[in-house]
Amino acid sequence: MLVWRNGKLLLIERKKPPFGFAPPAGHVDGRKSFEDAAQSELQEEVGLCVKELELVAEGRRENPCRRENGTWHYWKVFHVSAFGEINASKCEVKRFIWCSAEDLRALRRRTEDFLAGKISQAEWEERPGLEPVWSEFLTELHYFEDRAQASEVVVASLQSGRP
Question: Which domain holds residue 50?
Answer without folding.
Answer: 2-160
